[in-house]
Amino acid sequence: MPALVVLQVALACAILCNVLFLVQQKLAPLLAPSGVATDELILVDRMDSQAQPWTAAEVRRGEQVLREVPGVRDASAAFGLPMVPGALMDMALQGGNGVKIGVNGYLGAGLVKTLGLQLVAGRDFLPDEYHDFGLDGDGSHGWDPVAQQPIIITRALADQLFDDGHALGKLMSDLHDNQGNGHGYRVVGIVRHLLRNQLGLATDGRADNTVLLARRIGSTSILNFAVRVDPSMHDAVLKRVAAAIQREFGARMKEGATARVSFYSERRAQAFQRQRAALWLFAGVTLAVVIVTVIGIMGLTGFWVQKRTRQIGIRRALGARKVDILRYFLVENLLIVGVGIAIGMLLASLGNRLLMRHYELVHLPWTYLPWGALVMVILSQLAVLGPALRASAVPPVVATRSV
């Protein structure tokens, strides 16, 4: 029976360590603050032109048409928006302290205001700092690099890339600049939060690895809009924005294509639906394994208490206190569980390596092993507490009876 409990504890500990890690990976983007005006933001995407790309003038007119819709406070054409994973810009930046970080870039005029971002230092881009950014039909992009381009970063990036977080006015280098043409960025503003649109990378403190570039959407065959609206006109303004998009751009979109127009809050709920389902699955499996293990520990201890009733009575008659009997069973359980936990931590590491080989799973940090072990110790000691208390309550007179 002790060997069976050891195996149960080892299996439960191995599963628990990996599940704690996976749950943290799933929870991190779900709990990360978005930084945007959640209840006021409408996102428009899936706008692909059928033949010729939209010109910069047509994009500007589309922004103006949206701003004139009743209930709309502001609108910006953009490339890269939170909860719009179809338009990604990956960048690699290096700050003043030498740290190199991969980030997502958002492009568009007036995004600080449209998204409802909170500036904690510095300023927004000036009108004359914007340069056009275009996407042709095959998805390639390009612009003429300008030294020390202005950039707005998040508070988290400022803390990571610069000593003491003093990033305002400092320079960052672009690690994708292979031409050596001085393509770099000067920080002009810092926002409190801005969730990246690569949600799979929004873990381990990387959720806010996002920057805003002073790029205005020009000629493009792929078009997205961010629209900030009056939240009191929620349903009505959504229909008006959808109608304005269809009226202004519908004739030029690919046959059968329809722009997706929805609130940010709805997009976020849909994006995290699978994460929530995975969390419930992890919780169910872990709970089942832990319950079986706890029942096993309680059953083993209860069996030992029954078999040792006479022994316990003799010890009580010889002067053992209730706390001594209680301590005896707790220490005995700790020794058995400790062996299982040691095996379980080894199995957790081996199991993670096996999962890494067959699935896209990152390496299990060693710090999760002691946390899983601690949870198992607490649960096992709580499981043995009931039978141990019953054992400590055995009266000394039991020693005179025949068992």
Please explain how this structure is put together.
The protein is of the alpha+beta class and 403 residues long. The chain has two domains: 154 residues, no CATH class; 239 residues, no CATH class. Helices cover 46% and strands 20% of the residues. It is built from ten helices and 14 strands. The radius of gyration is 30 Å and the shape is elongated. The two termini are 22 Å apart. About 2% of the residues have low confidence.
Features:
single chain; 403 residues; alpha+beta; six-stranded mixed β-barrel; four-stranded antiparallel β-sheet; 14 strands; elongated
Biggest sheet overview: 6 strands, mixed, barrel
Q: Would you identify the regions where 5 or more consecutive residues have pLDDT less than 50?
A: 137-143
Total domains, how many?
Answer: 2
- The outline comes out as elongated
Name the beta content range: 15-25%
Number of strands: 14
H-E string: HEHEEEHEEEEHEEEEEHEHHHHH
Question: Would you tell me the structural class of the helices and strands?
Answer: alpha+beta
